[in-house]
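Example record for the data management plan.
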Amino acid sequence: MREDGEWQLVRHIVMWNFADGNTDTQNRENGLKIKSLLEAAAAKIEGVISFSVHLNEMGSSNRDILLFSEFESAEALERYQVSEGHKAAGVFVRAVTKDRACIDYEAEQ
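Corresponding structural encoding:
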């Protein structure tokens, strides 16, 4: 929270592509597990404003999974990133994806 009592809205956006070698069905199952793991981790963290994980269902996209999240501060984002749930999810995510793109930024409310 800023000195004026307002949130310092921080957006954390991450995108991945699945690793090569799996079927579409396996990728969908892995994507749903990633969604479940990340959303469960975020649910335990104070300061999460919004948090959603989406699987690519349109051919126009060039990423397979998207995480879009908003936190009330950089400290809240850090609490999420160092949490045991996030660390455990990361082990699975790294095992089934081949790349990652991420941006964190302060946003206007």
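Summary line stored alongside the record: The mean pLDDT is 93.
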